[in-house]
Design brief:
single chain; alpha/beta; Spore Coat Polysaccharide Biosynthesis Protein SpsA, Chain A; nine-stranded mixed beta sheet; 11 helices; 9 strands; 41% helix; 21% strand; globular
């Protein structure tokens, strides 16, 4: 049984953190270390972590808040095992998540990462990501499709640490969608596997990064610009732009997003 280093970045979530932590420590796959990276919290996060009576837990405190990407990258650099996984401080893994992903990986050693489905809880609604009706392959060489769809969240990923470091980890300059941008770069280099089962629960928050509209669309414009040639080559450019414009229209920020995209494209 290979050891897995699980990384939880956290910032001022002392009151919610233990739900996430316990969901990791109570995994049926027990050969793990849990690295909690405190991203400059000003609450009682340290006291909460120091009260955890489990020798598998490590606490890394950053001197100031640098953002989730820096915290995740720091955790990966501190990891002592060859396999890493990420969890968020306000979500919950189901008890057999790691076990099922690691079992699948043993059967498919050609993959450098294995992800899974998750249940999104948003207000009174629940839905599964990736959706069953989503087009295109879900595993293998999925680079082209990942440019078009955001279907792999950071807490669903289990991967080789060496591969994570080789592609440069998470981009700390991204103000939103950093996990989507990362997995696109990863998929450009490596094959990715998929466990088609809901193995974790994600809880939408109004203060989450994805709820910050300007940051979200800035990141999408940047990604469309970065991968413009690949999107054109696979015939997905118009679809990607139209999807973004539709989301912007729904939020009444279409004019702003159009200007933003033109600005990014003009600089490329």
């Amino acid at each position: 049984m290979k050891k897995v280093s699980v990384i939880i970045p956290t910032y001022n979530r002392a009151d919610k953190l233990m739900i996430s932590v316990n969901s990791v420590l109570e995994q049926t796959y027990s050969n793990l270390e849990l690295i909690i990276v405190d991203d400059g919290s000003q609450d009682h996060t340290r006291q909460v972590v120091e009260g955890i009576a489990d020798e598998r837990v490590r606490y890394v405190a950053l001197p100031q808040n640098g953002g989730v990407s820096i915290a995740r990258n720091t955790g990966a650099e501190c990891a002592t095992s060859d396999i890493i996984a990420f969890q968020d401080s306000d979500d919950a893994w189901r008890p057999d998540k790691l076990e099922k992903q690691m079992d699948y990986w043993r059967l498919h050693p050609e993959f450098e990462m294995v992800y899974c489905s998750y249940m999104m809880h948003k207000y009174q609604f629940e839905y599964i990501v990736p959706a069953e009706h989503m087009e295109g392959p879900m595993e293998g060489d999925i680079f082209s499709w990942l440019i078009l769809r955001n279907s792999i969240g950071a807490p669903t990923m289990v991967m080789k640490r060496e591969s994570f470091l080789k592609v440069g980890g998470f981009d700390s300059s991204m103000r939103s969608l950093e996990d989507w941008e990362f997995v696109i770069r990863f998929a450009r280099e490596y094959q990715i596997g998929f466990v088609d089962e809901v193995l974790m629960d994600v809880y939408y928050s109004n203060v989450s990064v994805t709820s910050q509209v300007a940051a979200y669309f800035e990141s999408r414009c940047r990604m469309i610009t970065t991968y413009k040639e690949q999107l054109l080559a696979c015939g997905f450019f118009d679809a990607a732009v139209n999807d973004m414009f539709q989301r912007a229209s729904n939020l009444n920020v279409l004019d702003m997003v159009k200007k933003m995209l033109i600005q990014f494209l003009s600089m490329s």
